[in-house]
Structure to design on (124 residues):
C-alpha cells in the first residue's frame, strides 16, 4: 500500500486531496490526486465505486478546515514505478498491508482491511 507522511498531520496516510472544479467526477479527482501526490504515472482504479467513506475531525494545523470527509478508492499501480514526494508530504513509501507503520490514524488499519475486501469482490 502506498502511503504518504503528511506534512501537516505528521502521520502516514493514503494519498488524496480535494475535488477541483476541473474534475469531472469523484473517481477522476481520486486519480488526479493520486498522481499529483505520489508521482505515479500508471495508476488505475479497481472500480469507480468508493471502497471507503470516512468523516474525521482535523487538528488546528490544518487551518480553517476542521472536519474532513474521505471518499476512498482502491487503485492499482506498480511498486517499480518511481514515487515522488509532493509539497504536502515529507515522504512517500510502499508498505505491506499487514505491516503498516505505527504512526497512522487509529482507524486506518480497519479501513484498509475493508477496502481490500471491496477490491477483492470487484476483481472477482
Amino acid at each position: 500500500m502506498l502511503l504518504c507522511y503528511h506534512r501537516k498531520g505528521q502521520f502516514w496516510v493514503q494519498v488524496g486531496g480535494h475535488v477541483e472544479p476541473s474534475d469531472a467526477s469523484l473517481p477522476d479527482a481520486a486519480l488526479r490526486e493520486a498522481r499529483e501526490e505520489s508521482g505515479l504515472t500508471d495508476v488505475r482504479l479497481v472500480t469507480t465505486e468508493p471502497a471507503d467513506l470516512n468523516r474525521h475531525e482535523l487538528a488546528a494545523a490544518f487551518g480553517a478546515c476542521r472536519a474532513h470527509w474521505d471518499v476512498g478508492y482502491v487503485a492499482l499501480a506498480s511498486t517499480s514505478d518511481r514515487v515522488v514526494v509532493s509539497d504536502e508530504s515529507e515522504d512517500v513509501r510502499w508498505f505491506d498491508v499487514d505491516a503498516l507503520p505505527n504512526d497512522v490514524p487509529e482507524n486506518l488499519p480497519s479501513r484498509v482491511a475493508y477496502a481490500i475486501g471491496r477490491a477483492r469482490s470487484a476483481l472477482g
About this structure: The chain has one domain: 2-123. The helical segments are 26-38, 108-123.
